[in-house]
From TrEMBL:
Protein name stated in the entry: DUF2653 family protein
Pfam families, sorted: DUF2653 (PF10850)
Length: 92
């Protein structure tokens, strides 16, 4: 299985919204990749912004897969990859 960058962004928005008790539409996410730092995302909520690392991205993906697809997935089954965009491969 594979998640597109849009689905990864949705996963992060939903995860942050649940933690902050706001609507997912109030969260903006920009996916990032850096040769030295790896995968991360720039998150903005109500005028405040911060970065989340790859581990936080994978945690959001795990929760998203559980909620949206009813799939029980562990962190070691998820691989982020950069093609034309950032995607997540899910091993089953």
């Amino acid at each position: 299985m594979q998640l597109t960058m849009d689905e990864i962004i949705n996963a992060v928005c939903i995860n942050i919204a649940e933690r902050r008790m706001i609507r997912p539409t109030e969260v903006t996410v920009e996916m990032l990749w850096d040769e030295d730092l790896g995968y991360s995302a720039h998150v903005t909520v109500q005028g405040r912004s911060w970065y989340i690392n790859q581990n936080a991205l994978i945690e959001a993906i795990i929760r998203y897969l559980d909620q949206e697809y009813r799939m029980r997935v562990f962190a070691d089954q998820i691989t982020l990859d950069l093609t034309d965009e950032i995607i997540a491969h899910i091993a089953q």
